[in-house]
Design goal:
By secondary structure, the protein is an all-alpha fold. It has one domain (2-160). Helix content is 88%, strand content 0%.
Length: 161
């Protein structure tokens, strides 16, 4: 019983840590895009800069809702509320997935541009890079949810004992 409680807490902490990491990635993407805009367009306005980075900042902050949503799903008594909370969790996950994928694709394009400028052969094929990017993005956007659900399941089992 103590082992399940210990692991449930550890899994929930790990889920929170992954959410913080994903949030940091989103904030770094927004900073990177802002720097890129400032580098390539010297005449950019503050509004254009804000419109470039704001979506990534918002998605980064939305990432913090994943673990609380999982906890609410587990503690919810009604099936209707569980359904709508699950839909909200799915939408948050899709938002995270799409944003991370867009960031990885952007970095791949930057890599291709740099290699073209240096006249070096590009080792990755576009299809290989897409598979890698989609796989990594799916893992990052869903693993914290998996950990949170596992932790809450262990807590629920512990509470029943």
């Amino acid at each position: 019983m103590i082992i399940k409680e210990l692991w449930s807490d550890r899994l929930l902490y790990a889920a929170q840590a992954l959410v913080v990491i994903a949030t940091a990635i989103g904030l770094l993407l927004s900073w990177s895009m802002g720097q890129e805009l400032l580098t390539h367009d010297k005449d950019t306005t503050a509004f254009n800069l804000l419109m470039t980075i704001l979506p990534f900042i918002i998605v980064s902050l939305i990432e913090f809702t994943k673990v609380p949503l999982v906890k609410k799903i587990y503690k919810s008594a009604g099936s209707v509320s569980k359904f709508f909370l699950s839909i909200a969790l799915l939408l948050v996950t899709l938002i995270t997935f799409e944003t991370l994928l867009a960031g990885l694709e952007r970095e791949y394009v930057n890599y291709v541009d740099i290699m073209a400028e240096l006249k070096k052969p590009i080792m990755l094929q576009l299809d290989d890079a897409k598979v890698w990017a989609v796989s990594l993005t799916f893992f990052v956007s869903t693993f914290s949810i998996f950990l949170a659900f596992t932790g809450m399941t262990l807590k629920k089992i512990k509470d029943k004992l």
